[in-house]
Amino acid sequence: MAQEHNMRRVTAIRNGTVIDHIPSGQAMRVLEMLAVDKSTSVPVSMVMNVPSKKMGTKDIIKVEDRELNQDELNRLALVAPDAQVAIIRAYSVAEKMTIELGDEVTNVVSCTFSNCITTNPREPLAHRLKVMAREPLELRCHYCGRPQDLEELIHNVL
Amino acid sequence: MSGLITMDDLSNEEIMSILDDAERLLPVAEGRTYLPLLQGKILGNLFFEPSTRTRMSFETAMKRLGGDVVNLGDVKTSSVVKGETLYDTIQMVDGYTDIIAMRHPRQGAAQYAQDAARVPILNGGDGAGHHPTQTMLDLFTIRQAHGTLEGLKVILAGDLRYGRTVHSLSHALTRFGCELIFASPELLKMPAEIVNDLTAHGANVTETEELLGSIADADVVYMTRIQKERFADEDEYTKVAGAYKLHASNLEGAKENMIIMHPLPRVDEIHPSVDSTRHARYFQQAFNGVVARMALLCRLLGINVPQKIADGGEA
Fold it and tell me: Of A70, B64, B65, B208, whose CB is crowded by the most CB atoms within 10 A?
């Protein structure tokens, strides 16, 4: 029942991406990380804090006419590692994708420490953050070793 | 072991084994024996910021072992000033040399260089990050004086906030079960994240603003320079710096074998009257930079020091 009710909160989409099981309150962050804002011409629907059997409460986002690729999924791993992603084509689920947070987040965000070697935009090696702990998420720069502040990190999306 | 970027690249056993090699190489470092273990090898010295002891002792270490050195020279006249990336500089020097020693103002630069290079990188300081070769020579000096690294009582005094030397050393001493006393003014305290990290690893840490009170039962007093530019006004600096000065008269109640160390350069924090006491070990410590770096160069270039010495030192 709860599931059906949640789905009715926003209309079904014809083509696009549904991101479900986003931790409650993280939907805005997900949109930021996907660079979905006013400049994005596609319609976006979002519900926050809806009941979830698995999570208690959760957020859901529907992005019309846009299919997320693997790189975009990798970005989500930082804020919604357990989110479930469905690609919708002609009102049906065409593809299901899950996000797995690996041991390292590569070329998704850059280190937040102002004196890190990677702050020179001309340096060509990959931006690498090591996953030190998952719950709560703790990341450290592979190069300078500094722990990363997740609030700041969101502004460093590559 | 591809390079030495942080002390985490070495196990305690490896540290002890490298210090043993350093001990074996002492007569070579002192110029009493010639042992060309690194003949035909070239060290690239890449110092992107000023260095006296680290750069010179790497160069001396390489030459004492029959190897050669190429220097980046003054950064102001090198291709760095033209905007060359560290990646490109490393690609070039990697082709010229067998091993690279580097210091760079940016934190993480040594790891970055190691990821870009085929030859081993020895981190000679990266911003406020790590300085593991200094830690190795510090450990060598402590072991030379006390015969062990375990269970000693060590005071680290002065600027504990900005000094990468004391950060690396504290971590290493914790691994050997030393008791640490951090004596510094409030403004220059050891960063909380480091203290937390040390205590999480079982360190016995005491923080104090009082240096002289703990000297009586210390085994090592490690002094550092308090820099004037860290303070908003000169009066505050004069007041604070005055509390972290050692004079020979402060050492009367000290243990017989207590040693005083300093990464140098010193300004006023150790009075020249201390130089002639049995406790002064800072010039010996600077010399030990050569022997510790000799042992590290050999280790990273795959030279088995005891074996080579037994074979008569043929390169």
Answer: B65
A114–chain B Cβ distance below 8 A for any pair: no
Chain A partners within 8 Å of B116 (Cβ): 125
- Rounded to 10 degrees, the C-alpha dihedral B158/B159/B165/B169 comes to 60
Partner residue opposite B86 with nearest CB, options A113, A123, A144: A123
B164 is catalytic: no
List the single residue in B with minimal CA-CA distance to A144.
Answer: B108
B118 is catalytic: no
Domain that residue B120 falls in: 7-130+289-308
Look at residue B24 and give its three-state secondary structure. helix
The complex scores an ipTM of 0.89
Q: How many domains does chain B have?
A: 2
Strand, coil or helix: what is A119? helix
Distance CA B126, CA A115 (A): 10
Per the domain annotation, does B2 fall within a domain?
Answer: no
Same domain, B28 and B154: no
Same domain membership, residue B277 and residue B150: yes
Binary contact (A144, B87; C-beta < 8 A): no
Nearest neighbour of B85 by CB, restricted to A115, A116, A122: A122
**pLDDT, tens digit (0-9, with 9 covering 90-100), for A36-71:** 776 778 899 999 999 999 889 999 999 999 998 877
Dihedral sign, CA of B28, B31, B32, B37?
positive
Interface test with A, best of B112, B123, B164, B196 (most A CBs within 10 A): B112
Active site residue B55: no
Confidence at A5, pLDDT banded by 50, 70, 90: low
Please, is B255 exposed, middle or buried when counting C-beta atoms within 10 Å of its C-beta (0-12, 13-18, 19+)? middle
Flag if B85 and A145 touch (Cβ within 8 Å): no
Task: Identify whether residues B275 and B179 lie together within a single domain.
Answer: yes
B103 has catalytic annotation: yes
- Verify that B194 and B234 share a domain, yes or no: yes
- pLDDT, one tens digit per residue, over B60-90 is 999 999 999 999 877 777 777 778 999 999 9
Q: Does B293 lie in the same domain as B272?
A: no
Q: Are residues B83 and B201 in the same domain?
A: no
* pLDDT at residue A4, as a whole number: 55
pTM of the model: 0.87
